[in-house]
Amino acid sequence: MSISGHRGEAHGAQTAGGGRGAPVADLRNDRLTGATSLVVPPWSTAKAANPAVVALELPVGTVPCPFCPVAIDDGTHSAGEETGRVPGGARHPLWSSVSLRNRWPQTVAVDAAEVVVLSDVHDAHLGDLDLDEASAAMGLLLRRAESQRRAGRFPLVFVNHGVNAGSSQPHPHGQVVGLPEADPGSRREAEALGAGSCVLCEELPGELTVARVPGATVVVPEAPTVDYDQTVVLDGHGPATARAVAHGVQAALRALYAVTGPVAYNLVVHESGHAHVHVVPRTGWHSGYELAGVHTCYVDPAVAAERLRAASETLARRSRPHEAGLAFDPEGDAA
User: Is residue 56 part of a domain?
Assistant: First the structure.
């Protein structure tokens, strides 16, 4: 399994005082995403010590919240027409997660945009849900994507968390958008995920591995788009399983927050070919480099992976064994 690219040529050298002779920034290209990244040497900036310079800000949102159970179950469909739900049980009296038609669809078809509310708890966080709850949420996202696929569309599945990640409501939710053609990111990755030449099936350097969980491996790309960028790679080709996606995403988010503190982030789920999830924290602002298509990273990917891996291992030692048998079915769906 590999999401690594190749390193750029050395561009000369200079001393710490600015003389010629020491290596400059390392230009890298990612074979999966096609991203071009400039990995800046640590001597050149203080940002490497604390790259998460953009503090998490949650949106104010609408009051009352349209995604809380009171609004969704008031019978008026004010939050949008319901398309599916996972029944709750004792811990979730009404539902664990629910999907709705997006009232403001940014698509060519009114039924091609859906919102998936990830939890009935207003201030919940995907990384803090237990594994069954997270699996229920991811399962509903994947099923609504399949519904769009059956309608002849190309589903784009994502989660925005925080103002800097594009979220307009604080209640945790994801979106499924049925596009008339595959999104550019998926098209770029298609060639790298072909049968017999899949870069995610190749052996990944151990120095870039963050965590291994049942059904998935969390890794740092060699050419990241941002500091502490991570990819959750599902085991083998075939349909993504909700539990493996949830397990991997939670491992990535928990390690991220342990290292950087709360930051905004985006999740993008790609199911075509070799299923994987991009976990992209908003650890900095775009500058001229990014606008020109070159991503700037101040933490070497191997160093980022080492820090995230250490955090993940510490969290694993502290966690309690998972208690199964909750009173709802993570794979259940009323639609």
Answer: no
**Residues 287-319 as b or e (16 or more Cβ within 10 Å = b):** eeeeeeeebbbbbbbeebbbbbbebbeeeeeee
pLDDT at 188 exceeding the cut of 50: yes
Q: Which of 3-17, 29-43, 142-156, 196-210 has the highest mean pLDDT?
A: 142-156
The reported pLDDT for the residue numbered 323 is: 34
pLDDT reported for residue 331 = 45
Q: For position 275, which CATH number holds?
A: 3.30.428.10
Q: Among 106, 31, 95, which Cα is nearest to 67's?
A: 95
Give every CB contact of residue 74 below 8 A, 6+ residues apart in sequence: none
pLDDT of amino acid 195: 65
- Name the DSSP letter for residue 236: S
* φ/ψ of residue 211, rounded to 5: -160, 150
Per DSSP, the residues of 158-206 read EEEESGGGT-S-SS-EEEEEEESS--HHHHHHHGGG-TT--TTSSPPPG
Radius of gyration of the chain (CA): 20
pLDDT of residue 9: 34
The structure's pTM equals 0.87
Question: Into how many domains does the chain fold?
Answer: 1
Alpha-carbon distance 57 to 189, whole Å? 31
What is the CA angle 255-259-264, rounded to 5? 80
Q: Which domain holds residue 147?
A: 69-318
For residue 60, what is the enclosing H or E element?
none
Residue 225 placed within a domain? yes
Is residue 322's pLDDT more than 50? no
- Whether 102 is in a domain gets the answer yes
Summary count for the chain: helices (H), strands (E): 6, 14
Q: Is residue 176 part of a domain?
A: yes
